[in-house]
Q: What sequence folds into this?
């Protein structure tokens, strides 16, 4: 009996959820001084990195041709799906932690730790790789003299390590880490300057491209391409076409456009740094959603305009994959413009580097505050109101990696953490919106929040009616003809279906990735599995769609539920399956280290565990709003003791000024 009780207690520890209790948003230990414009600049700077100067040429030449503009459009739509899910949680839980916090309040502690641990990895590798790219770009302007010097006197001949130690990248990381430690407002001003210069340079590129461009470069004939291939003595493809495709707007077909979109999707990664500013921005319930959506829109317009200008200036098959814009300006006779491009590239890298360093210590701080990481990492500087220990320690780790390691083999690991976070946030939105009760505290009087009072009565009424429906039980009829209001049974059904949907999408992604030849050959087993997966996917989404949603309203809510989050999960898991086996092996090693920390330290020091009675009943979604309010009062009186296990989170909305 004792082992069973211990196993049950251990399982409860893994799925316990965080309860967010705020008397007011002024309780934040961080400095609440960022504006909506600061968030937009942070998101644009982090997302619109040096990739806009390189990626367009690489994808246009190898995958999409002139249809790269459609590739960016498809990638932007897929990214906006993830961005909208982040935006809703930013409006619901205006606290530091991003996807880590959103997972914690919805699906439990273990998944939250996995998410946070992988976000840390993504930000560390991202910081190191961007710093080395900045160093390399600056070295190019000096004719590679810096690199040649270090290769001569500091050469490293070990597998897995860099060719030479990059002192320049180390200094850059430490400089920006020190800037972030000095204050978030000062960092925001520096970021706005870098981002503004970057945007101005990109506008110059777009205008120049449309002035010097030629629409004929989007209408190159297949015969012309075959003649070029023949003159270059390059063999044609198996289907008899040129190695440069069939010409026209889509030289590699729609499949090439989709392949380009899969690559372009990663160009929109970075907006999630906005979600880590919940305790440092004024009016976070509105500023975070606006910042995320606007930054993605600005980035799409920039990518779309630059790729269109580039392919209009120069035929896609002549593009240089490493430095397309300088070569394109040389092609149209504007050679000196390459210096403008170089300046913009350095500013883009600087803003991107700041965007990588900024969220990293905030995720670490949030995990340390919750007791899942070492408590010392949660210290806040009393003067600057920044997580100084987390900032300096994470910056030091990133600097060491940039100094010694060859990061090319590790960059793909960034994608796992990002895509996993996107998938979990989308799943959490699905689960949260179908819960029967989301008890929010009544805010103190605030003119700008007075309108929210009308929702309190509606929420209480909905919860009371939901309690009356709890005794109905589960039946097959409830799948497609459920009650008008969510119940514990309907919410449990949705939670189960969301988990099943994720495994179904994983199977579908594996089949379409590794069984594509069998599907193309019309083998019976592959077609049967494909039809089964697709039909089950559609049926599950329709069943979720039929379930009643919670009536509580917030400043921003994801539209087209459950279709938009479900498709976001599909896209993210599919892209994760595309990663190599070596990447997953390295990911497993990183996760093993994380689990070692969690099961030896985090699970015992978790604030949710220390303040929770292990004998509490699991099924607290059946509790009404009055019970939740009484528990909230007990929490405040007893320092968060005797918390209920399954109330997702309790907080109220309140804005504050600097």
A:
């Amino acid at each position: 009996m004792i082992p069973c009780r211990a196993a049950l207690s251990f399982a409860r520890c893994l799925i316990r959820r965080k309860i967010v209790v705020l008397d007011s948003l002024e309780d934040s230990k961080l400095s609440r001084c960022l504006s909506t414009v600061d968030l937009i600049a942070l998101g644009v700077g982090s997302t619109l990195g040096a990739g806009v100067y390189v990626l367009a040429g690489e994808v246009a030449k190898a995958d999409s041709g002139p249809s790269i503009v459609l590739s960016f459009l498809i990638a932007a739509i897929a990214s906006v799906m993830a961005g909208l899910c982040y935006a809703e949680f930013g409006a619901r839980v205006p606290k530091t932690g991003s996807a880590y916090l959103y997972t914690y309040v919805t699906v439990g502690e273990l998944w939250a730790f996995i998410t946070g641990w992988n976000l840390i990895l993504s930000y560390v590798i991202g910081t190191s790789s961007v710093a080395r790219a900045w160093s390399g770009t600056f070295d190019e302007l000096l004719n590679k003299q810096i690199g040649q010097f270090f290769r001569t006197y500091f050469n490293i001949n070990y597998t897995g390590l860099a060719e030479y130690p990059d002192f320049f990248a180390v200094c850059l990381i430490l400089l920006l880490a020190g800037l972030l430690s000095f204050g978030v407002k000062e960092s925001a001003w520096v970021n706005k300057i870098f981002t503004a210069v970057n945007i101005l340079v990109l506008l110059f590129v777009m205008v120049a491209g449309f002035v010097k461009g030629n629409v004929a470069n989007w209408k190159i004939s297949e015969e012309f391409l075959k003649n070029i291939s023949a003159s270059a003595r390059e063999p044609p493809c198996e289907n008899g076409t040129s190695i440069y495709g069939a010409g026209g707007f889509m030289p590699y077909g729609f499949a090439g456009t989709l392949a380009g979109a899969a690559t372009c999707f990663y160009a929109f990664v970075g907006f999630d740094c906005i979600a880590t500013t919940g305790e440092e921005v004024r009016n976070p319930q509105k500023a975070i959603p606006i910042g995320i959506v606007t930054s993605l829109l600005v980035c799409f317009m920039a990518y779309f305009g630059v790729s269109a200008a580039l392919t209009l200036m120069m035929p896609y098959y002549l593009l240089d994959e490493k430095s397309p814009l300088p070569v394109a300006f040389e092609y149209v006779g504007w050679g000196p413009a390459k210096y403008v491009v170089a300046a913009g590239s350095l500013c883009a890298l600087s803003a991107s580097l700041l965007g990588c360093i900024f969220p990293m210590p905030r995720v670490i701080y949030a995990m340390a505050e919750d007791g899942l990481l070492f408590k010392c990492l949660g210290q806040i500087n009393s003067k600057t109101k920044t997580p100084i220990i987390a900032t300096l320690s994470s910056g030091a780790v990133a600097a060491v990696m940039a100094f010694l390691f060859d990061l090319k083999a590790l960059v793909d690991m960034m994608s796992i953490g990002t895509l996993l976070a996107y998938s979990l946030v989308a799943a959490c939105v699905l689960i949260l919106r179908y819960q029967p009760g989301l008890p929010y505290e009544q805010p103190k009087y605030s003119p700008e929040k007075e309108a929210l009072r009308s929702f309190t009565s509606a929420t209480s009424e909905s919860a009371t009616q939901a309690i009356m429906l709890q005794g109905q039980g589960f039946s097959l009829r409830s799948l497609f003809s459920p009650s008008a209001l969510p119940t514990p049974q309907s919410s449990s059904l949705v939670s189960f279906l969301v988990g099943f949907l994720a495994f179904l999408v994983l199977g579908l992604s594996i089949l379409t990735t590794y069984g594509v030849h069998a599907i193309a050959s019309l083998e019976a087993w592959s077609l049967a599995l494909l039809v089964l997966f697709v039909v089950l996917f559609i049926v599950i989404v329709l069943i979720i769609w039929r379930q009643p949603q919670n009536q509580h309203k917030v400043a921003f809510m994801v539209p087209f539920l459950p279709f938009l989050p479900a498709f976001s999960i599909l896209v993210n898991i599919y892209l994760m399956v595309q990663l190599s086996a070596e990447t997953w092996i390295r990911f497993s090693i990183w996760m093993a280290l994380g689990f070692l920390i969690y099961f030896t330290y985090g699970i015992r020091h978790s604030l949710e565990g220390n303040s929770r009675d292990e004998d509490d009943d699991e099924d607290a979604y059946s509790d009404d709003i009055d019970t939740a309010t009484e528990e909230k009062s007990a929490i405040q009186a007893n320092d968060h003791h005797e918390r209920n296990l399954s109330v997702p989170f309790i907080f109220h909305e309140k804005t504050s000024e600097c």
In short: The first helix runs from residue 2 to 15. The two ends are 56 Å apart (CA to CA).
